[in-house]
Amino acid sequence: MFLHLNKKISIPNCSQVRCIAWSWEHEFIACGGEAGMLKVIKLESNVNQHQTSKNDLSKNLSVNQTLESHKATVESVCWNEKFQKLTSSDANGTIIVWMFYKGMWYEEMVNNRQKSLVTGMAWTHDGNKICIVYEDGAIITGSVDGSRLWGKELKNISLNKVEWSPDGKIILIGTKDVEIHVFDHVGNFLKKMSLNHTVVAKAAEKLIAIKWFKNGTTSNHYPRRLIIAFDNGVIQLMRNESDYNAKLIYCEMGITSIEWNYNGDMFAVTGSTGNKNFIKIYNDQAQLLTVTKIPGNEVYDCSWEKNSRKLVLAVDSFMYFANLKCRISWCFLSNSIAFLRNNFDDEQKKKRSLMFWELKTNKRNERSADNFIQMACWHHYCVVVDKMDKLQSNNNKNNTLENNQSSSNKDVYCLNLYNSIGTLIDYHLTDLQQIKFCCMNSNRVIVASDNSFYVWPFKQLYNANSFKSLAFYSDNLYQELTQNIANDNDLMAGGSVGVKSRRQQQSSSTSFVVVVTDNDNISCVTVSEKFFIVGFESGIINQYLLPNASFINKIQLDASPSRMALNKNSTKLALTDRNSRFYLYDFEANNEQTWTEGNWIEISNTVAKLTDIWDFKWETDNNDLIVLLEKNKFIVINLYKGGVKILDPILFDGYLCSFQQLSIQTIALDQLIVDINNHLDNLDVNDYIVNIPSHYVNEIKNLINEKDSITDAINYAVKIPELPSLWTIVSNECLKNLDIETAYLAMIKNRDYKGLQFLKRLNRIKDLNLKNAEVCAYQNHIQQAESLYLQELDRPDLAVYLNKMNGNFERVRTLLEKYNNLANHDKEMKECYMNLGEYYQDNYQWQQAIRYYEKINAYDQLAECYISEQKYDALVTLVDKVNDEKILLQMAMFLESLGFCKDSVRAYIRANNFEMATNACVKLSEWKMATELANRYKTKNVDMLLEQYIQHLETDHKYMEMIQVYRNANMIDKAVAIIIKLIDETKKMDNNDGASLLKKLHLLIGIIYEENKLNNQNSGRNNKHETLDELLSQNDIFANGTDQQHQPIISTDPWKGAEAYHFYLLTQRNLYRGKYQLAMNCALHLQDYEEYLTVQQIYSLLALAAYANKCYDICSKAFIKLESIDNEQQCKWNSCINDLFNVNTTSTITTMANEEKKRIEYERMAVQIFLKNSPDENSSSNNVSTNISCKFCGQSIPEYSATCPKCQTKFHACVATGKSIIDQRKNWTCKRCRHHAIQEEIVSYTNCPLCHVKI
Prior knowledge:
- Helix 14 packs antiparallel against helix 15 (846-855) and helix 28 (1056-1073) runs antiparallel to helix 29 (1076-1085).
- Residues 46-58, 397-407, 462-507 and 1021-1041 have low confidence and may be disordered.
- This protein has 35 helices and 64 strands.
- It folds into 6 domains: 2-203 and 258-266 and 300-325, CATH 2.130.10.10; 338-688, CATH 2.130.10.10; 694-821, no CATH class; 859-1041, no CATH class; 1055-1185, Alpha Horseshoe (Serine Threonine Protein Phosphatase 5, Tetratricopeptide repeat); 1186-1248, no CATH class.
- Residues 330-677 form the IFT121 second beta-propeller domain.
- It is found in: Cytoplasm, Cytoskeleton, Cilium basal body.
């Protein structure tokens, strides 16, 4: 971090500035001082803030207002950010609240107590309350509207500071006795805060500040956000008012002010030692980041800008502005930048991410980097050091270090190698502890801790085997390091720093560790293709020869180095120390004192002092040029032939990206990060990057363009032979002026073969405008070249070709749409659409890619886009259009994953992969289709897979799934067998819902029967003999797999079981509804289903229904049937049950006894019923029913009759009501189950009452 003073503003009448405050939200700066001076200013800023940072911060004041109401010295000013109010107080006790209205500040409220001095004011974070403390012990709390909330007076206590907690529930009030009292928000005293009296109170005479970061929290699990500062230079950093483990900071100066920045990760401290003033910046971990001396007699106050890039200081009668350059972790790659940014999630937790931002495409790729440590780059590679979590590291250690307990507690670091767009191309693990530094060259990454460094050789170019090596690195790293420890060898010993190496007998491609054994800590590292340099805090610099890191030289510096860099050929070393002083070392210079090679380059005699250098870079093409960043200036130094020539400084404020072709590339990285955090859209990184030509470039351009002296320009370039890049500038400038001869000579001097070929082609062109256009295109001035092609030459074809070669296909599309009369227009347009689709597809903008692919019917590319965009219906339509087998396979697998079996099978078949088509059917349980495919394409038999699947389902007792699988596989016999098994198990259970379940199971048999019959009809059999054989074999289908008991029943009528339980349930439903005649009609039909229902079930229900319907003759017949079950018949029945279900004899005897009791009960009930009611048929029929004539024989019969007693005609039963359908003209027949119902009754139904098919 580097802090430097940038500008100052003087106060009129030389009034001393006592207090200052910078509004974070509205950017106003308020300062108060002697003689009632109170000013509000605002720095002028442009609309595009990132452009502002490029203009040397030379901002004017957009607001400069003097507020004239105070008569005494203004002691304090504070902002209410939410309501945009300013509060000021003076030495007379006058408090004024100011409001902003129509561009001016006006008084809103005045409070003039005039009894005592105001010693502290503080607003809550939400701006609703203010607390004011007075020297005489008075405390007043008011609201934002000016009303007083409460007041309190502390007797015999002098107050001097006040602060609110972030949540506004606690008030901290400091006293002049160096104590802090804690109150709640309504004024109740809670306690005195615990201070470190052993260190603080002994020497402290005054409490300087209480600052609680308002965006923070009071939890014990978060960083310290409460600062207590004392005049003796001690700062107490706490988590909350109850933190007994406060951290102490000794500033070693008398503190005058202290202030948090907007993010709460840094705070500034101002003070003085003797007659010198300083400002110090600390982070929230109490680590000192930077120290800067401040001119003047006394510094009173300081305040931060919202973005933490600037501070304003109150010094004497001036306001000083200081620029802060933070140590941002960032890298400038060949065609992108990568930087670390901090942001906050929805829960206000700090998150870190690594952003890669491409310069040409302006695309951003962001990666999580919560465990980030360090980063470095080389051309288009970037290495990022991450500390791995314990869980991740333990997973990697388990296989390699199970017996090495000493290594299990070490932290593990991961070296991630990225390309310029943020794609991970390699990584490496190391257990080097506490990594702090990182650097890299074209084939090695070197990381260092305080006392050791680690070398990792990586493969520069990506190949298919790169990721195969990743597993080797991670699995064998710890084993390698363990072996390295056993093979420790001394590497060198020199001076006060002794170094030894622990490594294998390794080649140049093996990683190894070098350990520094003494107490001197590493302070910085750098590497080139030839050397690796390590700097130590003691000032010693060690030089190692790559690739084996052999120690070859030691350099002594009288300061502690903090930053180093080697030039391109490793002959010179540039470095700065901790005080930002700059040094240069030449490895090839002769040291006359030691008679050895290598000596410091003397630069102290130069005009420039070079004492505030915070960054520097060597020229990439020249070994003797280097650019330095001193405060807000760029300084170029030429070291040709041992000389030191310092060029005129260039004013600019930014970060240094690169120095090449005698031009300095800079970026306003601070403003870029601020704009990203402010969620500004449509940011273009190139707007933040500026190329600044050096003094040499400006001079030679001036000679050519301004003075029009080509001869002087050539002489200038000849006089500076160490800068061959000047000839490139000469040739480019001459080309702009179409001075081809001079450009030709300059290109020869510069050995520019490509440029010479261009000049030969340019000489063949006669048209002057065409020449200018070609020159603009050659120098990459695309827009200017296109303008010449279109406006001066009327050649849109050349403009199209220019943009095509430049890869700007959107512009190509625009030109082709505008000029539609060009030759091969359709072909060009199709090619343009294809290129645009590929561009958007490569950038994962699927909708845009689909838009252009659809215009040219690029089905193969559309398939990939539809898969990525998950457009299932559109993808299905492409199955018959795509011809690429590879894409068809990809489509088929995607459709298979979605469960689209038929479509995926079609795609597999078109891709000629029948085996995978069959497997897809098996996976999706389409066994019938799988069987057909296996038979059609002679693939492997799926019966084995089917049986395995069935066994799996049977193990889990998933019988319904088994039935469905067999149905899909057209194995009807096995499906029916499982249903019959379920029927038998259901009958054994004593379940109230058994009849309903039995109906469903029998109904399923009937449905399966109808499906099989329909499939046979749809199979297309035209031969009558085949149809007859099929009909005759249907009984065999249902007979296979069923027991002998159910075989004849199912073969005769598969629907009969469903009928039995349907009428059984319908009878009970009518009984409960009080429809007794309908119930009796249904019960009469149950007599035909003794195969499915027991005699007791049928006739007991019939007797009940007949009795309820007062049809005593039918009731009598039902009781006779119930009483006719004799013991002999029951014994035979029970014997069959014993043989079938293995029931023991004891249970059989018990069952017989129960049946005898039931029979006796039937007799008793019959006697009670028929003693009161005669079972005469005629009387009963007359009471409950009317007679109708049989339609076949004319016999008069009751309407509930199921059979005509004369002609023995059996009438169909209505499945809706249970009535007999005697009049066939009113008959309705179901289209699936072929059962009947009365048309009048079925009108109210939407589904068949039996099979539930939709009517």
